[in-house]
Amino acid sequence: MNFRPVLGIILRQYYLLRGSPPRFIQQFIWVAVDIVVWGFMTRYLNSIASPGFSFVPVLLGAILMWDLFIRVMQGTSMAYMEDTWTRNLFNMFSSPLSTGQYLTGLVITGILSSLIGLFAMIVLASGVFGLSFFSYGLAFIPFLMIIFLFGIALGIFGCALMLRLGPAGEWFIWPIPAIISPFAAVFYPMDTMPHWMQIIGHAVPPSYVFENLRAIMQGGSASYGSLALGIGLSLAYILIASLFFRDVHARAIRHGGIARYGTENY
After folding, report:
1. CA dihedral 59, 64, 66, 70 (to 10 degrees)
2. What is the number of helices (H) and of strands (E) in the chain?
3. d(Cα 215, Cα 185) in Å, to the nearest integer?
4. Do 8 and 98 form a contact (C-beta atoms < 8 A)?
5. What are phi and psi of 265, to 5 degrees?
């Protein structure tokens, strides 16, 4: 693969951030608000809970992981939205740019932008509320891998959905994390959910992150087998989402949807 077009997509997003302070600041605002609100919530819970148990690594750690997933997903899809908002999508696909190169550029952009948010989250969570990531041990590495990979998969899926439905498809993207969160067991163990929800939850990779996170904090150990399954599922979802985007893109090219993108009769 020729990475020069990929670099061009990344540079375009860089120049957008550099030339627009609101775009750059929003990388920090939402994560900062979430960490501060939930950080004080964990302090309050610690003050009324039994001694010896801290909600910081359990609850605040879960919030950090989930916010990171949202940042990765939206970082990937937002780069696509920028092309639709500026009516640049036709220019992109009328150039000698393959779908693989375009998706690679979106994914790298999403990863880099989410790393900015991750840095802000780590500084606030550890510096202000005393969250230590060493308490998760080596499991923290597969935790991040699953979160990043699944965020990338849903980001690509969101881009394909918008390409298929037109600009109005954007409104289906924002609720996706909220729809998935009950099945991902972010705040509670999976065995508290009905059986049918547990079946769906086992197909949602972040559920393996949060289940293992709670197991570690309760004095147990991480199940690296389940974490490997979560990584495998995430990679499979990336492949499925990429194929879906490729098929939707091919259909849009055949039927002229790219040229009409953004019009009322798309």
Report:
1. 150
2. 11, 0
3. 13
4. no
5. -100, 30
Amino acid letter, 168: A
Quickly tell me which residue has 């020729």 as its tokens.
Answer: 2
Q: Is 173 in contact with 161 (CB distance < 8 Å)? A: yes
Residue 262's pLDDT is what?
54
Which tens digits make up the pLDDT trace of 112-153? Answer: 888 887 888 888 888 877 777 777 888 889 999 999 999 999
CA angle 31, 38, 65 (to 5 degrees): 55
The closest alpha carbon to 250, from 163, 183, 127, 126, belongs to 163
Cβ–Cβ under 8 Å, residues 157 and 74: no
Q: Are 115 and 254 in contact (CB under 8 A)?
A: no
How far is residue 65's CA from residue 209's CA, in Å, rounded to a whole number? Answer: 9
The DSSP line for 95-116 is SS--HHHHHHHHHHHHHHHHHH
Q: Pick the residue with more confidence: 46 or 91? A: 46
Query: What DSSP character marks residue 263?
Result: S
DSSP 59-101: IIHHHHHHHHHHHHHHHHHHHHHHHHHTT-HHHHHHSS--HHH
Q: How far apart are CA 223 and CA 173, in angstroms?
A: 32
pLDDT in tens, 175-229: 888 899 999 988 888 999 999 999 999 999 999 999 999 888 887 888 999 999 9
**Contact assessment for residue 205 and residue 237, using Cβ atoms and an 8 Å cutoff:** yes
